[in-house]
Predict the 3D structure of the following.
Amino acid sequence: MINHRLSRRDFMQRTAAAAGTAAAGKIIVLDPEPGYGVAPAAPPSDTLRLGIIGIGMQGNGLLRGAITHPGVECVAACDLYDGRHDLAREIVGKDIPVTRRYQDLLDNKEIDVIINATPDHWHRRIVVDCCNSGKDVYSEKPMTHGVSEGFEMIEAAQKNSRIVQIGSQRASSIVFAKAKELIDNGAIGEIHTVEGMMGRNSPDGAWQYPPPPDLSPDNLDWDTWLGTTPKIPFNPIRFARWRCWQAYGSGVAGDLMVHLLTGIHYVCGITQPPERALSTGGIFRFHDGRDVPDVHHVLYDYEKFPVIIKLNLTCEYRESTKFYGTGGLLEITGGELTMTTQDGTDHGTGGYATSFPRALREEYARKWHLENDDRLSKIGTESVTFRPPTGYDDGWSHMQNFLDAARSRKPVIEDAVFGNNTAIACHMANASYFRKSIVRWDGTAREMRV
């Protein structure tokens, strides 16, 4: 059998070759992809004309970022709230056409690509309609609001040869790419456990957003916003804080867990949903009428290892993803990667030998040191940290990946199949929480089963 695991010496030598020098505890600044953030202007023939659907909290950020990319021009915007029509024009800096009907953007032959930044319950319909109208689409995470929707979206993308990128940026991060490289090369041995965690501790972090002060049925198409969800009277709180309700969002699983799982799936090359999920949690702090948990922890069984996810809206801590290997620990926290190697061997005679009588204990120790001291003199724990350059933004890289694919027709890094597998894992977490049972994935039937 070929041993693909890198020795610590090999790993440090490779690190030195890449960085010029390396030593235990060395911090290495990663190089972003060539041209990151400063790509040359695209020729007029290569300009992508962009339309955006949904200009809320996430959408306005995506629009602000997208128009900084070379060769991108926003030519139209859609939102059901008229105040965001003004916002879109403010961001773009000119009087672009605006509408409440997203179909107007799909009918516009001048538009090449669409950003879909609507609530979860609108994702399926808009992505399918974009593909059927010949538009490439960047759609916000989670990809779906329900399990069955994803396969319809995949079919629409494939049938129409459309580029679909799902907006969970970890898949485009150079830090996660370095983690994938190290793990693929066996730098921490075999992975047997992965853990991801994310915590917040503020009303804003728990989606208690202020509705626009002027919001009314006159400037918001409320009935259309509700879509296929149950019809209820106009409710500004539901509009601003839709993530708090199952009818429109996917809870902390679809809002936060999806980022952790995207990174884990990408780094570990996972191409299927997990086999099982078991959730626990509850509503412990934000008793504001929401029907999704503010604490949600999940244990997943994947084919090769378990994954533990901890989500918390009651205590703030830095986002972290840890890969536990037989040869070390690789941790991504605060946007940087630290790897600490382990040799997995005994460094002493151990505690059990203390139960031997003195003569046996001393003889055992003499032989042990005779056999191991030379080995011990050559090993040690080493640590190296990889850090992105100041100002690096994986969201910028993720959008550029989509724009490059729209021009070249090459695959994106987070296509509809990738996005669907991650979304299914989130739906399994929610289903397990609400049903209070283990949920299994039936890949043949494409269904969750209790």
